[in-house]
Design brief:
Structural class: alpha/beta
Strand order of the largest sheet: 2-1-3-4-11-10-9-6-7
Number of strands: 11
Number of helices: 8
Shape: globular
Distance between the termini: 18 Å
Order of helices and strands: EHHEEHEHEEEEEEEHHHH
Largest sheet: 9 strands, mixed
């Protein structure tokens, strides 16, 4: 059985990692990925990616790095994404992973106008999601956790935009039958979201945001989390997928 790949593009901050674990752990829990099938490749540390046909699917994590930095490891991963799309590999990108997928496939990524988006946000499903194999089941509005400074400003040609927030028109993108990405974080728990707000408290004040209000508004996001799980089930990556 082929492994399920987590493409690690960064690490959680030390204090958050010490208390809550790190990105691969959050994705493993959220997508119910069997530990025995998991393969984590730390591309930011220089690890080489396997050939797309050697894995069953891939999740691309978030990162403190910026796509616009065009780091060598990031651009190599973008090239790998293009090969994976050609091979029709199941792909799910989140935050930096979402932006990197869009960049790799011809979109434009840069800083989100108006500054960072952080906290539990209402996400609006668009009419384009009506026939999407995963997004069609989403309610017209649901909550999701966000923390990002850059965003997809222009989606690649042919990509379907499925959901937006008040600040970001590209919260959920469909690239093809097996590939999608989210700007929001379906893998975050409410506790992790609160930890990020605590960490960014001073920055938020400096930028004119109210961190206390954002902290109070943090809530569970089961619908966003379920999207990740349903992706894993649909593509045979998770526990119990054979029974779905």
């Amino acid at each position: 059985m082929k492994p399920v790949l987590i493409i690690r593009t960064g690490r959680a901050p030390d204090a958050i990692r010490a208390r809550h674990g790190d990105f691969p752990h959050w994705f493993r829990l959220g997508a119910q990925l069997p530990l025995r099938r998991l393969q984590v490749v730390d591309v930011a540390a220089g690890d080489a990616l396997p050939a797309p046909d050697a894995v069953a699917g891939a999740i691309i994590t978030g990162s403190a790095a910026m796509v616009t930095e065009r780091a060598a490891w990031s651009e190599r991963t973008a090239g790998w994404i293009r090969h994976a799309m050609d091979a029709e590999l199941p792909l799910f990108g989140v935050c930096f992973g979402h932006q990197l997928m869009a960049h790799a496939l011809g979109g434009r990524v840069d800083y989100l106008p108006g500054g960072r988006e952080i906290g539990t946000q209402p996400i609006e499903k668009l009419a384009t999601a009506a026939h999407d194999p995963l997004a069609a089941r989403l309610p017209t509005s649901f909550r999701a956790h966000t923390t990002h400074e850059q965003s997809v400003l222009e989606a690649p040609s042919g990509v379907v935009v499925l959901a937006r927030s008040a600040r970001d028109p590209h919260q959920l993108l469909r690239y093809g039958p097996h590939a999608l990405s989210t700007q929001f974080h379906p893998e975050f728990s409410a506790d992790v979201m609160r930890a990020y707000i605590r960490r960014k408290h001073a920055d938020m004040h400096h930028e004119g945001f109210d961190p206390q209000r954002s902290f109070r508004e943090v809530a569970a996001t089961p619908i966003a989390r379920d999207l990740l799980l349903r992706f894993a089930h649909r593509h045979g990556l998770s526990h119990g997928a054979r029974h779905r």
